[in-house]
Specification:
With 240 residues, the chain is of the alpha/beta class. It has helices at residues 48-59, 95-98, 102-127, 163-174, 192-197, 218-238; strands spanning 4-7, 14-18, 63-66, 88-89, 92-93, 131-138, 154-157, 179-181, 205-211. The chain has 6 helices and 9 strands; from the N terminus they run E-E-H-E-E-E-H-H-E-E-H-E-H-E-H. Strand 2, helix 1 and strand 3 form a beta-alpha-beta unit.
Length: 240
């Protein structure tokens, strides 16, 4: 199985990356969890696969969509972090990761993580986009923090480079969308993919988080594509 799907696109200047677009677990990996959890936010960014496909198609831009669950390997972490192969996620123990020895961790990183990021590096070098953007979804409330509601409909995350985020936040708020500025969590703490492939190159980027309950169904996915496509395009154009 391929760790990622590459979607061709003709649009100049944009590349989409979706780290958590799949809940797939290879047959030879036993996570030891209730299979129902594979449809939960701990295994996949709910709604992002269809949203990414529509957004890429409308923009005509190339896209890289991960094809493995974040419980197998979290591609949006640094490879040395414990959370790259999470032993626990939002209160759920993952026995197949908890019991993984050092050799097993290295084998999984080598099998999935490194080829995925090598593909992104290859496409960035070949396509030379003017802006990267990534799509994620977030749960309205974490089980481990039930008293902390996440009211934003969308959030823009960034670490040191906020050039694109500042433009997109203004555009979204002008449309009346409740928009988080480095919320629901800070890109200064978790921004691994964009740190590696955008900030390290001086490339502007958008790290977009949509609240998952808004993209559970086809109508919601279509609505958010309607919202995001012009904002992404306007942000790209404003940076020229």
């Amino acid at each position: 199985m391929s760790v990622a799907e590459f979607i061709e696109g003709q649009a100049d200047g944009l590349l989409l990356v979706a780290d958590h677009a799949s809940n797939h677990v290879p047959d030879d990996i036993d996570l030891g969890i209730d299979p129902a959890l594979l449809d939960d936010h701990i295994a996949v960014d709910i709604g992002i696969d269809p949203l990414a496909r529509i957004v890429a198609a409308r923009l005509g831009c190339p896209a890289i969509l991960a094809r493995v669950s974040r419980l197998v390997v979290d591609l949006h972490r640094h490879e040395h972090e414990l959370a790259a192969i999470p032993p626990v996620s939002d209160g759920h123990v993952v026995p197949g990761n908890t019991d993984l020895h050092a050799e097993g961790r290295e084998a999984r990183i080598a099998r999935f993580y490194r080829p995925y990021h090598a593909l992104i590096e290859e496409k960035v070098e070949a396509l030379k986009p003017a802006m990267l953007f990534t799509l994620h979804s977030f749960t309205p409330r974490l089980r481990t923090e039930p008293d902390k509601a996440r009211p934003w409909e969308v959030g823009l995350l960034y670490n040191n480079d906020d050039r694109a985020a500042r433009i997109a936040i203004d555009r979204l708020r002008a449309r009346g969308i409740p928009t988080g500025d480095n919320e629901p969590y800070s890109g200064k703490l978790l921004n691994a993919t964009m740190d590696r492939h955008a900030e390290s190159r001086g490339l502007p980027y958008l790290a977009i988080e949509v609240r998952q309950d808004l993209i559970l169904k086809e109508a919601g996915v279509t609505r958010w594509a309607d919202i995001l496509v012009p904002v992404i395009r306007e942000t790209h154009d404003a940076l020229r």
